[in-house]
Amino acid sequence: MKTAWLGVFAASALLVAGSVQASPELAAKNNCVACHQVDAKLVGPSFKEIATKYAGKDDETGYLVSKIKGGSTGVWGQIPMPPNVNVSDGDAKALAEWISTLK
């Protein structure tokens, strides 16, 4: 019985460790903070401004993922956001979900 519980615990730990949770650290890891901050405009809009602008949009997460991965132009002014091809799909989704919580 003790061995069975140990196996369940180990499997649970792997699931938690394998999931991507977005945070300022994940934004830093993916270089988002070179242009964005949580509360203030830097080069691009703050994460909170982004969250507010897209709050309630149909497929908000999917839309933000497409902007994170593909970049954009003219949405927030003249400075374009370049594509972030090195951001994994999992990181992009986690970042989009995290940004959406900042409303």
UniProtKB/TrEMBL annotation:
InterPro entries according to UniProt: Cyt_c-like_dom (IPR009056), Cyt_c-like_dom_sf (IPR036909), Cyt_c_ID (IPR002324)
Domain Cytochrome c as annotated: residue spans: 18-103
PROSITE patterns to which the protein is assigned, alphabetical: CYTC (PS51007)
Transmembrane segments: none
A molecular function (GO) term: heme binding
Post-translational modification note: Binds 1 heme c group covalently per subunit.
Signal peptide (from-to): 1-22
Pfam families: Cytochrom_C
Highest taxon above the source species: Bacteria
Key words, A-Z: Electron transport, Heme, Iron, Metal-binding, Signal, Transport
Residues binding heme c, per UniProt: 32, 36, 81
Protein name (Swiss-Prot/TrEMBL): Cytochrome c, class I
